[in-house]
Design brief:
The structure is a homodimer of 875-residue chains. Chain A is α/β, with parallel strands linked by helices. In chain A, 48% of the residues lie in helices and 17% in strands. Chain A is elongated and about 100 Å long. Chains A and B meet through helix 26, helix 28, helix 29, helix 31 and helix 32 of A and helix 26, helix 28, helix 29, helix 31 and helix 32 of B.
Chain lengths: 875, 875
């Protein structure tokens, strides 16, 4: 018997997402719930793999299973595929395991040809509807399946409407639409050199193949990469008998969320459009009506929908994103899935669902994407600045938050400007999947067309970027790269500001400030803290950062970079004179000047952290980074050091390295200049003693030696630190504990961790450097390489943003195992950028680290990610 | 019972080197052979560890064992330690497991004080001898044990001789020497603030401690580092009853080799000095007589020595380096050890010993240090240039080979000049252990004093550098940094040339050429080839290099760097225009121009190698390396590319990277510019087909993709190579096999070798880059770091010269295991610098690699090292 590739909806259920995709599984599930679902079937994700690996040909055995399913549909509906009297029409939709807004290839009304259209007109008594359906089908099929640009069709349709004096498609008559059909068929023939296919089966096979191929398109690759979805999952195809929202004034279509996915408010939220098909709402061709209005227009349908929403939410225990169609006042559910939501909404919904008794706190913790918390912590407009600003337009508040940036008119321009460090606002007529990368790079998006469920709105909410949509007053001139609003012309590069929570548009830059956090946040984070095992520390170089991080829930400092403290003007000159010293004596003299600064910095941090652990890293960067940039600075240094500028410049130049990242830095500086380490140790210990004396805090500094490659090297530096620390402690007469540990950021340190752990009391993975060395890719130079590699599907993600578990992770695993073998209670943490990335945090949990450390604003994200990792792996 | 730390010579034997050191074990062994050895005992290497780890104090239990051994010596000799009538005198010498020419701390005549000296004078009836011994002892003990500079003593002695009108020490009377003793004691007291120690036991304990401490001195560290001797081995101390070569004209001392260690000739070779102690010969204070003269002077002793030499050689099956003393015509052997020898001598001796039936070919293979073969392959003077050159001096041919370089007068100056890339000759009055590093950096050494067994001669032969010693006509002015010879003054930086095989000195630079190889060489290398398992390939970029390597026994090419071919003037401009192209079309046009060059290069190499395997690496370096350096070059490029210079310069500057070593290079170039890879593949395959057609050779190119980090990346580039290769082969109509493999030079490639081996048909370890990434140390910037690390005893060796088995080696091991797990027959090689280093080659053998690849001149070294590894590990 051949393998089963085709499943009727009635054969499936909600657990079969891997095989049927999310859409197919949910349609099957809803049938079992007794909801009104138009009958249909699914061609499985396994068929996708067969198709794409088999030279993109649909094998005979799949075709025949499809034929059998169509026959079954014909039996259920009493219609016949390609029939001239009562034709069966179907929709063809993709549906993969995970939601894929990047893949929008849908074909409606499939099964129409000249004869069947006549049959449809007769069967429904509605020739206008029949030809409207046919012209839609020709355009969709040509565009989506065959790849004839839809712009040719749209242009021809617009010209035709203009010729006929029609404002919208609704103003056209049946004959007009028949004429449009002929125009569309001619466009197809001119482009393809052959007639539009009239055989329904051929249309169907082609469409199924096209869905499978769409899994291979660059947009899909781009989305999967962002979402970490493996190529191997494949997509299923849903073939469903058509119901028609475009059958007249008692028909319509809508897209709904069971709660407000912007704010989390418990109220059905969405839009509908009378006499339209679903694509019209999503594409934003007419402006739809808010769902609430349906209660007045069609109270029966409205009530049915409310009941369906309640049923689905109780069943799925989450907010649902539902597509509906009503055909002559009969309601159909075409799709349901968990609704994408903003961070604020996600948090409120999770907390509400617990309060409503639908889910447990543990389930709630799993319902919020940690990255979404970022939105809650993002800046909002400064109140005073906002008061002074003038609103020049208002449209839909499509994705909340405040954004301010320079105007750009294409995704590419945004990406280019963003690469230069500019903050950008993308302004578009409407967005499409090609714009995804540009949107991701922008601060916010402003669109002329489209509603709250338009592409721009859905994607922006998913990404957590601000969006104002459907501002039709905006007149864009794409060629000139300008737009007009409120009588003013804005050029590329001009500043505007957007409030995605109110829909307001400002023709100027407005200062932004940090946002405030709701009560739900604390409640939710307390749940997260209950489940997580990983501690969360922060990377902080100042008392201010430290205080901020504590506010966000940080439990200690995982990394204080001592070098950042040196860049203030009154210090850098002493640091420079230290670096450029020619003798140990000169160097020590300059170091002596730096001690008070370092000591007071450390004391401030200890005070802010009270008794929380504080890890301080010894000087790390290559010394060349501190050299003067201007002649004035050289002159000042020359005066201080009492040496000619030329001598100082020569010495500064001699510090230049070919590959500074692999040069004289980290603990290598301590080996060459132990006096620097002595100075820093003195400051670290003296400050701790001072704070202990002043406040009684039991400060236990964790002194971290960077860039270790060998146990003997570590022991050498440790000896310098220990001797100094002991002397300072002895002289003070105050007892003080401290730890000496190391960054693990060089492959060799991982490989020899058993040896290193003999001396090191803690390890902190410096995964920035470790990733650089493991890949042999310099972060400073990675841009071009990573772009090429991600575009060519060689790397799934930027390994500097998302920890590479296969390579870097394997080294970490080795290091953890070897380190623990020598010192079972060794303290393990991570302080690279990855410490704030949920995917990486999950891996740290799996490795059994004690803590992650990240920037203050990432602390809540890390807390939640750590909780989710614990729930996922310690079930 | 307490541990045994002291062994009488009669208690030991030759197998106990670890415990007794080489010297002690050999003395014990010689006693069992019935040779005349002055009685004595050894304080073991274990005592050294106890001493150095125990705060450098000699524990009571060791002291009492020493006391017991002294009592035993007193019994055997009938003398008494510190006795005023017939005092027992001893020598104290270090003796570690391996020969340590860097440690020369020897004390003779220990046990003397004012009273004992009178006793010695009475017992021998020779007061001159007694006071000579006493003054020697005071100086040696003060210098070696206590650390009073010996120069004060030497200066005082020279002044005293001048005052007395004495030409040498022999011209002084007993009373004179007694006066010298008093002067020396005063120097000691002035320096130390107390009297010279008169208690014999105290002298002995102090001396034993001093030997142990000398294991900790920087010279010893330096030597151990070079020779890869672990610190933990420690040194033993040999305490031996004195015999006296300075007892008059029937006494003497000598240093002998059982064969000529310069040439390998079978004839006793060495020097002796009448009425002298051993130190006099080694230090070169008087010029000794060649051993052959002893036959006339003292035929009985001569005959005895010849017999001893024969006996020792037969026993040890190797050339012996023997120290003798004869006291009133009675011969004593004070030491024997395997003799250091030149490469040429090592080879000849090994072959001769086989011919004489003393050893097997397998044993012979183990007797030659692979690095010594380097000497045989070193350049000699160009015959024509030599004819034209004028000999300006002649002295002892202390270490063979030809050297030409600039004159420097101190080891530090040599090191500094050498660091700048200069070739240097070190010119010294005499050398001492402090000069070792400077000698190692120089091309050759010229000394004024000392014989064939002087420090300079012994060390230079060991290092394989050219040395001419004992040229007393040379007048050095150290302050002015000049020397005079043959009426001419040479300043620092002037060129001279040395012939270490003839002893000739030339006051000019003489061109050098490659040396010729003796018949013994082929015979010996054939033995090596018989035992080795590793294949030896070469790194060669030109047909000329390839031919040279075959001459040296290379079995294939492990690395052809395609980029080196581009630097010729007529090519580089096309390469540049390719790199600076703005479109794929421009780039392909430029690449088209390069194909004929690449193709003819490859064809030449294939022809030279015939059917031997040839591995060709695709373009590897960052493109910035190829950019123009001069305005002329930019102008030419501007003309060729028909673009303004400014545009070209901008583009060239944009290629600059912060860390080019971790930048856009290797197969990353192939991902961005697959057209480069297509061009190179075309050239590789077309050339192979051409040579196959022309000569019928079955050429099987091995195409090597550099810098792989991920299987998908490798597969991407492989696809480009394969598609191109298939097309070229198909078009040619000639069948051609080829392999596609990768460099393994990035840690991630090692970690993911199981995946990479799915696609790669061979791995070649690029240990230069792998070492860089594993350590996070850039080779370009390593100088300062490595110097500091080696000086601080953190690194034992430069990991770029000697493979780091612990870190880099562990990654290689992982890669081999994972690669073989996926593809059991995967071909494995190494093509980094380490491929020519014996210690690293041994590791490659242990890993089970198929081949090593090294520069042509290193091929014989690699062949021998591979054979030794096989013999050592496959016993």
């Amino acid at each position: 018997m051949s393998k089963k590739y085709v499943y009727m909806f009635t054969e499936g259920d909600g657990t079969m997402k891997e095989l049927l995709g999310g859409k197919g599984a949910n349609l099957s599930e809803m049938i079992h719930l007794g909801l009104p679902i138009p009958p249909g079937f699914v061609v499985s994700t396994e068929a996708c793999t067969v198709y794409n690996k088999g030279g993109k040909v649909l094998p005979g055995e799949i075709k025949s299973q499809v034929d059998k399913a169509i026959a079954e549909l014909e039996g259920v509906t009493g219609k016949k595929f390609g029939d001239t009297a009562n034709p069966l029409l179907v929709s063809v939709r993709s549906g993969s395991r995970a939601s894929m807004p990047g893949m929008m290839d849908t074909v409606l009304n499939l099964g129409l040809n000249d004869e069947a259209t006549v049959g449809l007109a007769n069967a429904t008594g509605n020739p206008k509807f029949a030809y409207d359906s046919y012209r839609r089908f020709i355009m969709m099929f040509s565009d989506v399946v065959i790849g004839v640009s839809k712009h040719s069709f749209e242009r021809a349709f617009d010209e035709f409407k203009e010729k006929k004096g029609a404002k919208t498609d609704l103003d056209l008559s049946a004959d007009d639409l028949k004429e449009v059909v002929n125009i569309f068929k001619k466009i197809y023939k001119d482009d393809q050199g052959k007639d539009f296919p009239s055989d329904a089966k051929e249309q169907l096979y082609e469409s199924i193949g096209a869905v499978f191929r769409s899994w291979d398109n660059p947009r899909a690759f781009d989305y999967r990469r962002r979402q970490n979805i493996p190529y191997e999952w494949g997509t299923a195809v849903n073939v469903q008998s058509m119901v028609f929202g475009n059958m007249g004034d008692t028909s319509g279509t809508g897209v709904l969320f069971t709660r407000n996915v912007s704010t989390g408010e418990k109220a059905i939220f969405g839009e509908y459009m009378i006499n339209a098909q679903g694509e019209d709402v999503v594409a934003g061709v007419r402006t739809p009506s808010p769902f609430a209005e349906l209660e007045k227009d069609m109270p029966k349908i409205y009530k049915e929908i409310v009941e369906v929403c309640d049923k689905l939410e109780r069943h799925y225990k989450d907010v649902q994103d539902i597509e509906i169609t009503f055909e002559n006042e009969k309601l159909y559910i075409l799709q349901t899935r968990n609704g994408l939501r903003t961070g604020a909404a996600a948090l409120k919904i999770a907390v509400d669902l617990v309060d409503e008794g639908l889910i447990t706190p543990k389930e709630a913790v799993m319902k919020v994407d940690p990255m979404h918390l970022d939105q809650l912590l993002h800046p909002m407009f400064d109140t005073a600045a906002l008061k002074a600003a003038k609103v020049i337009g208002k449209a839909l508040p499509a994705s909340p938050g405040a954004a301010c940036g320079k105007v750009y008119f294409s995704a590419d321009d945004v990406k280019a400007a963003c690469a230069k460090g500019e903050k950008c606002i993308l302004v578009r007529l409407e967005t499409s999947p090609e714009d995804i990368e540009g949107m991701a790079s922008s601060e916010g998006v402003l669109t002329v067309r489209g509603g709250m469920t338009s592409h721009a709105a859905v994607v922006a909410r998913g990404m957590g970027i601000c969006c104002v949509s459907g501002c039709e007053e905006v007149k864009i001139n794409e060629e000139a790269k300008t737009f007009e609003l409120d009588g003013k012309t804005f050029k590329e590069g001009d500043y505007i500001s957007l409030n995605g929570s109110t829909g307001e548009i400002f023709g100027e830059a407005i200062k932004t400030v940090e946002s405030e956090i709701s009560g739900d946040f604390a409640k939710f984070m307390a749940w997260a803290d209950e489940f997580r095992i990983l501690k969360v520390r922060t990377n902080a170089d100042t008392p201010k950062d430290a205080a901020k991080a504590i506010e966000f829930g940080a439990e200690g400092i995982g990394l204080t970079r001592t070098e950042h403290m040196f860049f203030e003007e009154d210090r850098i000159i002493h640091l420079r004179s230290m670096i450029l010293a020619e003798t140990v004596e000169e160097r020590e003299k300059a170091l002596e000047k730096l001690i008070p600064y370092q000591e007071s910095d450390f004391a401030g941090i200890y005070e802010a952290m009270q008794e929380r652990p504080v890890t301080i890293r010894l000087l790390d960067p290559p010394l060349h980074e501190f050299m003067p940039h201007s002649e004035d600075e050289y002159a000042a240094l020359s005066k201080l050091m009492d040496k000619p500028v030329s001598v100082i410049k020569d010495k500064a130049n001699s510090l230049h390295e070919v590959n500074p990242m692999m040069g004289h830095r980290g603990c290598r500086l301590s080996v060459t200049y132990p006096e620097i380490t002595r100075m820093q140790t003195k400051a670290i210990i003296q400050a701790a003693i001072k704070v202990k004396k002043a406040h009684g805090y039991n400060v236990v500094p964790e002194i971290m030696i960077p860039l270790t490659v060998d146990i003997k090297e570590f022991a050498f530096v440790k000896e310098v630190v220990e001797t100094t620390a002991k002397a300072v402690i002895e002289a003070s007469g105050v007892a003080l504990d401290y730890l000496i540990g190391t960054m693990i950021e060089i492959p060799r340190a991982c490989i020899t961790s058993d040896a290193v752990a003999k001396e090191a009391e803690f390890f902190s993975f410096g995964t920035n450097d470790l990733t650089q060395m493991t890949y042999g890719i310099s972060r400073d130079d990675a841009g071009k390489i990573l772009t090429d590699y991600i575009e060519n599907n060689i790397f799934e993600a930027d390994p500097f943003a998302r920890l590479d578990r296969t390579g870097v992770g394997e080294l970490m695993k080795m290091s953890v195992a070897k380190g623990k073998a020598t010192r079972p209670d060794i303290k393990l943490g991570i302080c690279g950028e990855h410490g704030g990335d949920p995917y990486s945090i999950e891996f740290c949990h799996m490795l059994g680290l004690d803590y992650v450390s990240c920037s203050p604003f990432r602390v809540p994200i890390a807390r939640l990610a750590a909780a989710q990792a614990a729930v996922t792996h310690n079930k």
